[in-house]
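Here is the promised in-class demo. Please do not try to memorize the tokens; focus on the logic of going from shape to residues.
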């Protein structure tokens, strides 16, 4: 356990909403609008914290627990992930399995809170979330298996940052397939286009957004922070695994990492601005395709 691991964790909590702000501004530029300020997500969070909370009489302690426990689970997963040359706070062989489990736990708690409301509308969103996650999580594990095989490490501390130019020369096609698969999983896991639209409120197309409609005030603020943290965690995984070149200087590597995260935010904004949301029946095919890419990558590195 390294105390230096608190540096990237604290930075992630502070910068995760800004990551969303960059995506929003990129999408606004493509639409020909000025868009909201980069710090708008922070302003929204402060506004929510100042509001009160109203709970339905049909909900139980599960509904009140989820807004706290789900972001806490995502934050715990963040502690397993080294970022920008800084070590992970906690590291051990096989921690990538716990990493996926913690992200799944955050989703599970959100699904439970949606079901606890007794609303058939939120139950619909919860069932969609569970069905699509059953396709996304195996693909994520397969991508991590490729990284384990190629890097020779069983810990995220060895996997993340272990892909140098030599690995890209030796296994470039497999790593490229894994990168595409991880990007697709990132979009699906974070309710982004083409799988979901975080800005929609149409009944027949909502997936994640419908599950948090009954939350308000500080609870909703915590949920939004958890969503931003999850997007940051997935993005840090992609950037850390596939950004070659590490100088050994934590501050220089940190700057390169932040530049990579900025580039990834712009890429996500471009993707969401240039392609349409998939029909609900096409989402499983999209996720199966991501899994197929991961299987092909694993086959290439196993030969």
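The designed amino acids, position by position:
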């Amino acid at each position: 356990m390294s105390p230096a691991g608190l540096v990237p964790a604290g930075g992630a909590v502070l910068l995760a909403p800004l990551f969303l702000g960059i995506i929003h501004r990129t999408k606004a530029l493509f639409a020909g609008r000025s868009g909201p300020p980069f710090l708008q997500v922070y302003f929204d969070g402060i506004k929510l914290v100042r509001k009160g909370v109203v709970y339905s009489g049909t909900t139980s302690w599960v509904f009140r627990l989820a807004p706290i426990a789900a972001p806490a689970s995502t934050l715990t997963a963040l502690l397993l992930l080294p970022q920008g040359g800084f070590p992970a706070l906690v590291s051990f062989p096989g921690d990538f399995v716990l990493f996926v489990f913690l992200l799944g736990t955050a989703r599970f708690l959100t699904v439970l809170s949606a079901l606890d409301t007794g609303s058939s509308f939120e139950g619909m969103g919860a069932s969609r979330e569970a069905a699509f996650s059953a396709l996304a999580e195996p693909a994520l594990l397969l991508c991590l298996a490729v990284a384990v095989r190629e890097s020779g490490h069983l810990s995220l501390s060895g996997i993340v940052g272990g892909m140098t130019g030599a690995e890209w020369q030796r296994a470039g096609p497999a790593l490229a397939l894994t990168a595409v698969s991880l990007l697709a999983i990132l979009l699906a896991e974070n309710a982004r286009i083409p799988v979901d639209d975080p800005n929609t409120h149409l009944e027949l197309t909502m997936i994640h957004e419908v599950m948090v409609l009954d939350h308000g005030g500080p609870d909703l603020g915590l949920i939004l922070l958890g969503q931003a943290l999850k997007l940051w965690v997935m993005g840090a995984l992609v950037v850390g695994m596939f950004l070659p070149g590490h100088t050994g200087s934590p501050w220089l590597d940190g700057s390169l990492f932040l530049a990579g995260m900025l580039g990834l935010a712009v890429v996500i904004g471009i993707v969401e601005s240039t392609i349409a949301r998939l029909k609900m029946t096409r989402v499983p095919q999209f996720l199966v395709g991501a899994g197929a890419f991961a299987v092909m990558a694993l086959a290439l590195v196993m030969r």
